[in-house]
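chain below, 114 aa
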Amino acid sequence: QVHLVESGGGLVQAGGTLRLSCAASGSIFSRAVMGWYRQAPGKQRELVAVITSTSNTNYADSVKGRFTISRDNAKNTVYLQMNSLKPEDTGVYYCNLKFVGVAWGQGIQVTVSS
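prediction:
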């Protein structure tokens, strides 16, 4: 069973930066597709960014040019660098792992004040 633990969230002013990390347990990380999702209050969870096992990436249109997803297979960790943050980026951010099955982290709050 895979466990995912997110860190790095918090409160930041608009225009600021945050870097989220997600550490995974187990031995499948390097073969897994990793993603970041977010859920704003009253809204559905949405995909923010995804990175494949070969480091191909894809982003939601709303974050293109501002967010960067990356992975370090030696550390079993995926990152989300968030620059030029906007109040609409506020929400709970979840790490996601896909390899045969799916695993989710517990979520971490990101709040961007205007």
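The mean pLDDT is 97. Residues 39 and 85 are 16 Å apart (CA to CA).
thats it, cya
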